[in-house]
Amino acid sequence: MTAAVLPHQLYLRFLATRKEPHDFVVQQSRSRGYGALDRDVWREQLAKLGPFPTCWKSTLQPENVELFRWLRDLNVVHFWRDPTMPALRVSPAAARVLNLLLTMNLNDETGKDTHMQFEVIMPQARGVMTPEQVLFYRDLFWDLRDVDIYDEKVQEQLARGRPEIMHVFLGDPVAAFAHVGYFPALSADAVLNGIICFGAQQTALAARNGLITDGRQGAAIAAAQATLMRALELRKSFSAGSKKRLKQEATQFVLSQREISVPILHVDAVQATTTPPRTQEILDDITQAEAQRIRTLEPRVELISKHGEPAGVLEDP
């Protein structure tokens, strides 16, 4: 019997530390799209906790250090402190979108990429969840970091009731987005980038984990690599076309500017131009006035040279 895949294992642990009854846990599991939780699986989750501290209470008080340490070691103290945090209040529709984006961004350890895409797909979520809250959600409800996503049975369990997740595994992000009700006017670059990122991720994970054990898996990886290379070629051609178009638009812009621009005269041309008549009259008047002032000052200069400089003698009359 294949072991159950529990991407919401931490959430189950949180409910277990709250001493929630099995019926409540089953209801919560179903409401979040995980299906019914077998009693044996639930008992395994309880056994992993070990004995409860004797100081256990339903609320976490600052002075209850022993309970705090126990919850901290189980990595659920954050959710005990704030049981109303956005990560615990995500609607089923938003959860489908987050699960899809988290699957596509398995290597994102910041939450930023998933958060930005989440805001685009669900604008009503803007400002509700921060990247940190997205990571809290991932840890609680959709943590695939320790899940073998190349195993067909694992993929089948994860995609049960979630066709968008299977389309992610098949490398079709457009169809995946369509299943959660998002039909963007995707550019060719955006689609190709999604295919390239997923294909590169699949290839890297296969190489790192050494998961190719039979011909079928090898063929699947070869097909993913072929799709990746084709997407890279297509993106390169799109990029080259965009650069050519931009160059044409820039050239056209320069030509249009030349058509309306005022010609700039060279300095030699400026010097060769004749002075307008009115300007010449003004210059003649200034020259005559300055000559008269100099003639007025000449006797004073001669007086100074003979007798020294009296106070204020050089002041203008």
Mean residue pLDDT = 74
Helix content: 55-70%
Structural class determined from secondary elements: mainly alpha
H/I helix tally? 15
* Low-pLDDT windows of residues: 253-275, 310-317
Compressed to H and E, one letter per element, the order equals HHHHHHHHHHHHHHH
Overall radius of gyration: 39 Å
* DSSP strand content: under 5%
In short:
This protein is mainly alpha-helical and 317 residues long.
Features:
317 residues, mainly alpha, 15 helices, 65% helix, flat
Structural overview:
This protein has helices at residues 9-17, 22-31, 39-49, 65-73, 77-81, 92-104, 112-121, 131-141, 152-159, 163-169, 173-179, 188-209, 215-260, 267-272, 277-307. The protein has 317 residues and is an all-alpha fold. Among the domains are: 1-83, no CATH class; 276-317. The termini are far apart.
SSE blueprint:
Blueprint: H1 9-17, H2 22-31, H3 39-49, H4 65-73, H5 77-81, H6 92-104, H7 112-121, H8 131-141, H9 152-159, H10 163-169, H11 173-179, H12 188-209, H13 215-260, H14 267-272, H15 277-307
Helix pairs in contact: 1-3, 6-7, 9-10, 10-11, 12-13
